[in-house]
Amino acid sequence: MTETQRAALEQITRRDKSPQALVTRARLIVLAAEGARNQHIADELGLHVQTVSYWRGRWLEAAEGLARAETDEKLFWKLLHQALSDRQRSGAPITFTAEQVCQIVALSCEPPEDSGRPVTHWTPKELAQETIKRGIVAKISPRSVGRFLKRSRDQTASV
């Protein structure tokens, strides 16, 4: 580990606004550079020994590129944060944008009669149909509408 790398890692651990995951990983790498064994690091930081092994490997993958980038401070910090950050996870892309969810929740606050619906209260099925009719989304299930409404209800402050 170069002095520049060590100084940057120590700076991350001291900075108040550093995300805790980055702080833990930076501390892990510093301890590893000091010669600490994986089990000792795991015990010290409250991690699983396999986690320590994984992040030591990630650091070794990135160390050479970091050393070459030390002359370009902006690039160095970008590579350092990439080395200490989680990798992109696989999975399906989001189906509904935050704006669409907000529009669905806002629609649920309107009286159904204003939309020509012969009901006094919205049901998830009615809201799904009205959402599609208004062009907010191309398709949506009543179950998805129900989840959005439940989530918005859980996030409102109780008085």
Short overview:
By secondary structure, the chain is mainly α. The protein is built from eight helices and no strands.
Mean pLDDT: 91
Query: Which percent band covers the strand fraction?
Result: under 5%
Portion of residues in helices? 55-70%
Main sheet attributes: strand count, strand direction, barrel closure: none
Oligomer: single chain
SSE sequence, one letter per element: HHHHHHHH
Q: Number of helical runs?
A: 8
- How far is the N terminus from the C terminus? 54 Å
Shape: elongated
Low-pLDDT segments, ≥5 res? none
Radius of gyration: 25 Å
Number of strands: 0
Q: Structural class, from secondary structure content?
A: mainly alpha
Could you walk me through the main structural features you see in this protein, from its secondary elements to its overall organization?
65% of the residues lie in helices and 0% in strands. With 159 residues, it is mainly alpha-helical. The termini are far apart. The chain contains 8 helices and no strands. α6 (98-109) packs across α8 (142-155).
